[in-house]
């Protein structure tokens, strides 16, 4: 294999790696938002089992994403790289959509409350209570 061929493989691997990193970041934000949503609201009960299932699902997805990269690089005409790029983009978009669901921007079929509003209300309520300010009018 020529030096140019190795450089091309590194470039393609880097492009796929960026999408894997985006998935890790989006999955982490989604997990934290979901956990906070379950802890801070009464609509969804926090369950350590569901939390562990969420972590395991993300780890399994991540392992699959990483393990198929070498096989995709072996396919001719960049077919594997383009296919994985499309699939990885879809997986990342799904995580972002779930984050938007936690933020109350979209309805994704789950019992999410707007986690940003819940956090703001909880923090503001604590600050007002400490200052002795009542929100009754």
How much is the average pLDDT?
Answer: 81
Element pattern in H and E: HHHHH
Helices, by number, come to: 5
Low-confidence stretches: none
| Helix/strand structural class | mainly alpha
What does this protein look like?
The longest helix is centred in the N-terminal third of the chain and has 38 residues, at 3-40. The chain has helices at 3-40, 48-67, 69-74, 79-102, 115-131. With 137 residues, it is mostly helical. The protein contains 5 helices and no strands. Helix 1 (3-40) runs antiparallel to helix 2 and helix 1 packs parallel to helix 4. The protein is 77% helix and 0% strand.
Topology (SSEs and partners):
Elements: H1 3-40, H2 48-67, H3 69-74, H4 79-102, H5 115-131
Describe the structure in brief.
By secondary structure, this protein is mainly alpha-helical. The chain has 5 helices and no strands. It is elongated.
Features:
elongated; 5 helices; mainly alpha; 77% helix; 137 residues
């Amino acid at each position: 294999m020529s030096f140019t061929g190795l450089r091309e493989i590194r470039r393609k691997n880097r492009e796929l790696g960026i999408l894997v990193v985006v998935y890790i970041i989006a999955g982490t934000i989604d997990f934290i938002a979901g956990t906070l949503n379950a802890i801070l609201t009464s609509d969804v009960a926090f369950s350590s089992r569901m939390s562990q299932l969420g972590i395991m699902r993300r780890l399994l997805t991540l392992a699959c994403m990483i393990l198929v990269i070498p096989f995709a690089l072996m396919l001719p005409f960049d077919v594997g790289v383009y296919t994985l790029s499309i699939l990885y983009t879809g997986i990342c978009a799904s995580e972002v959509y779930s984050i938007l669901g936690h933020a109350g921007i979209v309805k994704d079929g789950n019992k999410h409350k707007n986690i940003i509003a819940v956090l703001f209300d909880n923090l503001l309520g604590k600050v007002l209570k400490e200052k002795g300010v009542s929100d009754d009018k």
